[in-house]
Amino acid sequence: MARYVLQRFLGMLSVMFVVVTIVFVIVRVAPGDPAAVMLGPDATPADIEALRVRLGIDQPLVMQYLFFLGQLLRGDLGQSIFLDMSVTSALLDRAEPTTFLTLFSILIASAIALPVGILAAYRRGTFFDQAVTTLTMLAASIPSFWLGLILIQAFSVRLGWFPVAGYGGPDASFLTRLHHLVLPAVALGVVSSALITRFTRASMLDVLNDDYVRTARSKGMSEFRVVLKHAFKNALIPVLTVIGLTAALLVSGAVVTETVFSLPGVGNLVVSAVLRRDYPVIQGALLVIAAIYVLINFGIDMLYLLIDPRVRY
Amino acid sequence: MATQETQAAPRLHTLILQRKTLAIGLFVLFVIALLAVLAPWVAPHSPSRLSIVNRLRPPGGAWLFGTDEFGRDVLSRTIYAGQLSLVVGAAATAFACVVGITLGIVAGFFRKADAVMSRLVDAMMAFPDILLAIALVAALGPSLATVIVALGIVYAPRLARIVRASTLVIRELPYVEAARALGVPTWRIMTRHVLRNLISPILVQATFIFAYAMLAEAGLSFLGVGVSPEIPTWGTMIASGRQYIGQADWMTVFPGVAIVLTVLSLQLVGDGLRDLLDPRLRKDL
Q1: pLDDT digits 0-9 by tens, B119-166
Q2: Which residues of B touch A290 (CB under 8 A)?
Q3: What are the residue boundaries of the structural domains of chain B, listed by start?
Q4: Alpha-carbon distance B263 to B216, whole Å?
Q5: ipTM
Q6: CATH architecture type of domain B74-277
Q7: Out of A22, A137, A260, whose CB is closest to B123?
Q8: What is the mean pLDDT of chain A?
Q9: pTM for the whole thing?
Q10: Number of H helices and number of E strands within chain A?
Q11: How many CB pairs under 8 A join A and B?
């Protein structure tokens, strides 16, 4: 077991190292001088040169890379060019809406996907099963930002049930904020439920014909217990994996959905950073989001230890 | 099994027609592509003709899909936008194929390269697709070509992973061993013996990548970090329609329906092809 944990941990570290390198390369190939962008069009060449020295970008690439690694090891993501704050504070300031949006979407996606997927597998080949297959494919074809706009048209503009945009302002209560998150979370949740439904169905199909399910039935157990307790528990591993990965992928959907609903989250921060060429913010956001993905993956691997005794060797 | 093999192979179109979803997907895709190619002839109006008198007209009469804020015909713009949306999706897929297949085959063949490439692929897959595409477009400077290259880079690892896994299996098969024993050079084994047997999984995966790339392109255009907002793609059309929600819903609804239809038909084709080309890959997914 210790070997398994160590192996996964080292794997995670090496992937993280490559992630850091990729981010460094992407930001360094960007055209234009960050110092010139920072200081604006009125800056003198001397000012630009002074800032280049201060930022360390006058050094050779290898030195810059080592400096970047050193900075990261100290937990420093650098300073935003346009916002008067560090990248870490900028990200932390915007983390709340994105975190809640992601959690809320995952809840909605799982609430749709798990029962539907289980039932589709249980009623394999029926009209219901076919309808589920078609609907999941349809859901996976809808751009979440477009669904968001359609929801705004229907539920905010026409019916007036939900706010059109925003997060309720800085003094809004928790409930008001949640109210603002309903439509974006539904838009993201519906779209991401497709993948989870398909995995739940496939994974249930794998176990429903297994011997232990037949044994459970022959003992006279209720179908409900057989399906949920015996079959679903064993189908859970791939389902958990896909839920975890969907959570990580949701960040991607959140980038666009936050813009649709003008939510002041990390996605919105990244988009405005790209439009303003605020490279340190882009770099920091990329790193943090990729790190979350890698950590979630590691977490799922560790979760296997709890769920599946076979992994413990 | 033996009797099946000796029977004449059914013709391709029979095989396709037997799979209803594949046939429907191919048909819808064909119609969408045809409309895009024949846009100058089938579009009822010029996509860029301004008519301020007729701005924001609801669907009906001379404007089947209504008009936008400059009085331009939404139907004609949707048809024309299909050209670029499809071209970007196809070109990004082609780029992803070239990079992904090369990386995957090399990684599958050479152990030393495998260690590096697998890490690279794992790391690339840690970035959410749109976010990585945004960062790459920001780094390379926004233009049509960079959007294609960025999306190609984003989706190449998915192909590389599949190609690598299949290569690892195929390289151990007796006929590859036989080719090696006969002294066939490695590059020739890679292209002639391995690549040929990878065409089915590559084709299936490429169809799905096409679908994802179209969704991602629409997302980038919508955010204003993709192609220039003046160029009509389905994504830029939705972005400009966003300002008129509740007032001119048709500006966002129709280009969105076009995206959904195209992506859905691509997924149907991908699913159908998976069943048709490689029943072993079928996993009830």
Answers
A1: 888 888 888 888 888 888 888 878 889 999 999 999 999 899 888 888
A2: 123, 126-127
A3: 74-277
A4: 11
A5: 0.84
A6: Orthogonal Bundle (1.10)
A7: A22
A8: 83
A9: 0.86
A10: 13, 0
A11: 148
